[in-house]
Write a structure and sequence with these properties.
It is found in: Cytoplasm. InterPro entries: CutC-like (IPR005627), CutC-like_dom_sf (IPR036822). Keywords: Cytoplasm. This is PF03932 family protein CutC. The protein is α/β, with parallel strands linked by helices. It has one domain: Copper homeostasis (CutC) domain (TIM Barrel). It has helices spanning 14-22, 43-52, 72-87, 106-116, 133-143, 161-171, 188-195, 237-255, and strands at 6-11, 27-30, 57-60, 92-95, 120-123, 147-150, 176-180, 199-202, 205-209, 231-235. The strands form two sheets. The chain has an eight-stranded parallel beta barrel with strand order 1-2-3-4-5-6-7-8, surrounded by seven helices. Strands 9-10 form a two-stranded antiparallel ribbon. Helix 2 links the parallel strand 2 (27-30) and strand 3. The radius of gyration is 18 Å and the shape is globular.
Length: 256
């Protein structure tokens, strides 16, 4: 397993992906729908960014927001999305499927992993919704995942440090544990130093104002995102650079 710390930025749009690369990130996780926790982006976005980026692109495979217990039709959609990603040059895919009892849906996950190869495969934070993280760890390893994104089954990774550290220890060299959610300038050093993760995942979130000069003040909310028409969520290039530098410094301190 690579000893160098890897930084991954979750990018919800083209601008964020470009900012992530410019800020020095090692990889992006490409998603849509930030308010829903991330769903599958469009084929056109994947295709375009593959042309524009030099760093790896891992694509979220999630047919809807909500839980991770999917119908047969949703599972079929996930398979088709994986095939589209392979055809358009993605480097990896990101997904997770759970059974109603809170365990990993082993058979379905294994089927998607086999379909995705030779791409890298990450189990996303569906892992944090499992009933037993240590049992789920072994299931992920047996199914063939390359890494697990986790906050230690807490809202934010810095609140789940003890669990993440134990997962890292139990995983050994069998699978990579990637800490994510709530990773920022205030928490990244502590998370790395106290968990020994080799991968870190964050958003470097910022909002920029719309470039629209005309604004219809009679409408406040398209759908359920009140007031968001003229505010664009992006990954900040400056924050990406700053957090990456802090992460690498913390990692060097741990390694020395």
């Amino acid at each position: 397993m690579d000893s160098r710390l890897t930084t991954e930025i979750v990018a919800y749009n083209i601008e964020s992906a470009l900012n992530a690369q410019a800020g020095g990130a090692d990889r992006i996780e490409l998603c849509d729908n930030p308010s829903g926790g991330g769903t599958t982006p469009s084929v056109g976005t994947v295709e375009l960014l593959r042309e524009k980026l030099d760093i790896p692109i891992f694509v979220m495979i999630r047919p809807r927001e909500g839980d991770f217990c999917y119908s047969d039709l949703e599972f079929e959609a996930m398979k088709r999305d994986i095939s589209h990603c392979k055809d358009r040059g993605a480097d990896g895919v990101v997904f997770g499927i759970l059974s109603p009892d809170g365990s990993l849906d082993f058979d379905r996950c294994k089927e998607l992993i086999e379909l995705a190869r030779p791409l890298q495969v990450t189990c996303h934070r569906a892992f944090d919704m499992t009933s037993d993280p240590f049992e789920a760890l072994e299931s992920c390893i047996e199914a063939g995942f390359d890494r697990i994104l986790t906050s230690g089954q807490q809202t934010c990774a810095h609140e789940g440090i003890a669990t993440i550290a134990e997962l890292v220890e139990r995983a050994g060299n069998r699978i990579s544990m990637m800490a994510g959610c709530g990773v920022n300038e205030d928490t990244v050093q502590k998370i790395i130093e106290e968990t020994d993760v080799r991968e870190i995942h964050f958003s470097a979130k910022d909002d920029r104002p719309s470039k629209m000069k005309y604004r219809n003040k009679a409408i406040n909310g398209m759908g359920d995102k009140s007031g968001k028409e003229y505010s664009i969520r992006i990954a900040s290039q400056n924050r990406v650079a700053r957090i990456c530098q802090m992460a690498l410094a913390a990692d060097s301190s741990v390694s020395s």
